[in-house]
Structures are given as C-alpha cells and as structure tokens.
Design brief:
With 175 residues, the protein is α+β, with helices and mostly antiparallel strands. It contains 2 helices and 9 strands; from the N terminus they run αβββββββαββ. A 5-stranded antiparallel β-sheet has the order 1-2-3-4-5. The mean pLDDT is 84.
Length: 175
C-alpha cells in the first residue's frame, strides 16, 4: 500500500463519515422537532376540548375582553379564562379558587363574542352590539390562540400551533 493510496482512502472515509454525521444530526433534529410538535399539539387539543365543553354547556357569558372571558358554567359556577401576555399563559379560575394553568408559551389569545339573530333564511352570526347585555345576547364565542415551543432555549427551531374555533352556547339562560 502506497502513501497515495492511504491518503485517498482516508479522504474517502472522511467524506463518507462527514456525510453520515450530517445525516444522523439532521435525523435527530427532525425527530426532536416532531416530538416537540406532537407535545404542543396535544396540550393545545386538551385546552381546546376543555374550553369547548365548558362554553357549550355555559348558561351565559357575563363578561369579556379581548384577553379574558367570564361565564356561568352548567354547574352555576363563575369561570374566568384569562390570558396573561407577560408570562404567555392562559389560566382558568373557578369562583374564588386558585387559577389552573391551561396553556403555556401562548403568544396570542383573543375572544370574540357573537349573537345569532332569528332568521328563516340563514344561520349567520353577528358581533354582539354595544347596547346588548351579555347574558341575553351572546350565543357564540370565537377564540384564537397561537402557541410555540422551542427545542431548547438557544434553538432557532420552533414548533408553532394555531388554534381557532367558533363555539355555540347550547344552553338557554333561565333568567
């Protein structure tokens, strides 16, 4: 074996090793990113399921802002969903109890309220007018949020998830 053959063999091995290492590194990052996205999607789905169930069973919405929603649930408890833009969380608080964390890493969250005017021709919904009281007017709640999760604090790779839903209140107020 000559020195030229040895140098060529080492060079070929180095190029093949670099290609394999790059492929391995890319595979690890892709797998971690998919696990991260699946975890984020599961957290969002659980929060959306809880919100949907409670809003559908609510007696009425008693207050709202772009970052909070207050309602009387089916168990006659006052429930407040609150978005804190400072620490990127959404919490659920029942009556005077301790807040329960529903979402973390939440960048945007908006609540919009709608009424449904009786009509034989369509099922359109319209924003709640300023002269209406929440208790009698709100028939649907639209919510939108965006969450993200990083693989690690210095990572440029993020998993993002946007959730949006328009939920119709199914119960009628007894008041």
């Amino acid at each position: 074996m000559t020195i030229v053959e040895m140098v060529v063999a080492v060079a070929v091995f180095a190029v093949a090793s670099a290609a394999f290492a790059t492929l391995f590194s890319f595979s690890i990052m892709s797998s971690a990113s998919m696990v991260n996205y699946a975890t984020l999607d599961q957290e969002n789905r659980q929060a959306m399921d809880k919100l949907t169930r409670e809003i559908r069973e609510a007696w009425y919405v008693s207050g709202s802002a772009s970052n909070s929603l207050t309602l009387l649930n089916g168990l006659n408890q006052t429930v407040v969903y609150q978005f804190n833009s400072g620490n990127h969380t959404m919490t659920r608080k029942v009556d005077s109890g301790a807040p329960q964390m529903l979402l973390t890493n939440c960048l945007i969250l908006n609540f919009n309220l709608y009424q449904r005017n009786p009509s034989n021709n369509n099922l359109e919904i319209y924003p709640v007018g300023s002269t209406n009281t929440f208790q009698n007017a709100v028939k649907a709640v639209e919510l939108t949020w965006k969450t993200q999760k990083k693989l690690n604090p210095s990572s440029r790779i993020n998993s993002e998830n946007v959730q949006t839903a328009r939920i119709v209140i199914r119960k009628e107020s007894s008041n």
